[in-house]
Design a protein that fits this description.
It is a single chain. The chain has about 400 residues and is an alpha/beta fold. About 40% of the residues lie in helices and about 15% in strands. The protein folds into two domains: about 260 residues, Aspartate Aminotransferase, domain 2 (3-Layer(aba) Sandwich); about 120 residues, Aspartate Aminotransferase, domain 1 (Alpha-Beta Complex). The strands form four sheets. It has a seven-stranded mixed sheet with strand order 2-10-9-8-5-3-4, with helices on both faces. Helix 10 packs antiparallel against helix 13. The longest helix is centred in the last third of the chain and has 21 residues. The chain is globular, with a radius of gyration of 22 Å. It binds pyridoxal-5'-phosphate.
């Protein structure tokens, strides 16, 4: 075989539902030199990262760590560690990622119960409470922002409902954290997980996770430390967590004072995750969410001004992504391809019932910016016209610019 040249990706503006273009400082952090797993610099950086993510999550949870792997690694670690075989788990499904939670819970041998609402809608808290009363689950697993539909499930009232009925409350905030409100403690979350590649502005490959004391108790009650690193006095539960890699007991002991030698923390991903949180908190959590709100509102105004029909309940849309119906007669995939080839801009296709029906356009992390939004709208207008759609000249850019100027 001929040996390929060094990696040299084309310039891209990633305006899909994630991954998105990373903050330049995150990419720089990832190229910092490696240190040993137990180098004092490394363990200090791990501690700093935990403290940064406590602020990102809005929690004082000691058990705030990173799981090495993409967002679904975080989901799997939380679910496989919290669910005992035979536990009843309730999953309200309002898009693809609700199905993913149900699937992972099923593999963890839960008795899974789902309730569903139409794609493009969210659940009223009363519908979730009614299902909790009926199913009597030990765990509620609920996506916050489902990128497949763009909806943002309100979580503010759910923690109190779970506490009232003695249910653990887990949420997948992969797509929403950093660009939409999330208050782990104030909202009564027992477990939450995310990824870097959406509003946090990093690459995929590290999954921030936080656990309440109550969740830690469940994990600890299922403790099993592998032979070779087990010490006298280490308990070994009979219903231990059935995954070694995702056993949160051992992962917490690696991040905690015991520094148990579990996996080798992915050093460059730790640097990336640390930088994502640092960038967010330097800007200010509320300021970053407001930036996402404004950029999302500008993109929404822009696509509407181009005459595109927005999918779903706009009142419950995430700040950071909008889905638009592909106009009649426009070949969706060919138009997306032209946007990529001629303008270097990526927007997203969609899954399941929406496949071929909508494009998803993101404004998140580093790309929740005026120039990124206006450039995307200008390019989209040109492409739509090229494929025969009647679009008003300049209207998208103008409407979005008005929102950025506070006139929208
Ligand atoms: C809400 C949600 N959960 C989970 C995932 C899976 O993330 P990953 O591909 O990083 O494993 C995604 C990815 O888009 C997502 O949007």
């Amino acid at each position: 075989m001929t040996i390929p040249g060094p990696i040299d990706p084309p310039a891209r503006l990633l305006m899909g539902p994630g991954p998105i273009s990373a903050y330049p400082s995150v990419l720089r952090a990832m190229s910092a030199p490696l240190v040993g797993q137990y180098d004092p610099f490394m363990t200090h950086a791990m501690g700093e990262t935990q403290e940064l993510y406590r602020q990102v999550w809005g929690t004082t949870n000691d058990a705030t760590v990173l799981i090495d792997g993409t967002s679904r690694a975080g989901i799997e670690a939380a679910l496989v560690s919290l669910i005992r075989p035979g536990d009843r788990v309730l999953v309200p499904v309002f898009g693809r990622f609700g199905h993913l939670l149900a699937e992972i819970a099923e593999r963890a041998l839960a008795e899974v119960h789902t309730i569903e609402t139409a794609w493009g809608q969210v659940f009223a808290p009363s519908a979730i409470e009614e299902a909790i009363v009926r199913v009597r689950p030990t765990l509620l697993a609920l996506v916050q922002g489902d990128t497949s539909t763009t909806m943002n499930q309100p979580l503010g009232d759910i923690g109190a409902i779970c506490a009232k009925h003695g249910v653990l409350f887990y949420s997948d905030a992969t797509a929403s954290l950093g660009g939409n409100d999330f208050e782990a403690d104030a909202w009564g979350l027992d477990a939450a997980t995310a990824g870097l590649q959406k509003c946090l502005g990093g690459p995929s490959g590290s999954a921030p996770l936080t656990l309440s004391e109550r969740a830690v108790e469940v994990v600890r009650s299922r403790s099993k430390i592998e032979a070779g690193i087990r010490e006298d006095g280490d308990a070994s539960a009979s219903d231990f967590v059935r995954s070694n890699y995702f056993d949160l007991g051992m992962i917490l002991d690696y991040w905690g004072p015991r520094r148990l030698n579990h996996h080798t923390e992915a050093t460059s991903m730790l640097y990336a995750a640390r930088e994502c949180a640092r960038v967010l908190l330097l800007e200010g959590r509320d300021a970053a969410i407001e930036r996402h709100r404004v950029a999302g509102a500008a993109m929404l105004a822009g696509v509407e001004a181009l005459g595109l029909v927005v999918f779903g309940d706009v009142a419950h849309k995430m700040n950071n992504v909008v889905a638009v119906e592909i106009p009649e007669g426009v070949p969706g995939d060919a138009a997306r391809q032209a946007l990529l080839e001629d303008f270097g801009i990526e927007i997203g296709t969609s899954f399941g019932p929406l496949h071929g029906r909508v494009w998803r356009i993101g404004t998140m992390g580093y790309n929740a910016r005026k120039d990124a939004v206006l450039t995307t709208l200008a390019a989209l207008e040109a492409i739509l016209r090229r494929f025969g759609a009647a679009v008003p000249a300049g209207a998208g850019v103008e409407a979005a610019a008005d929102v950025f100027a506070g006139r929208g």
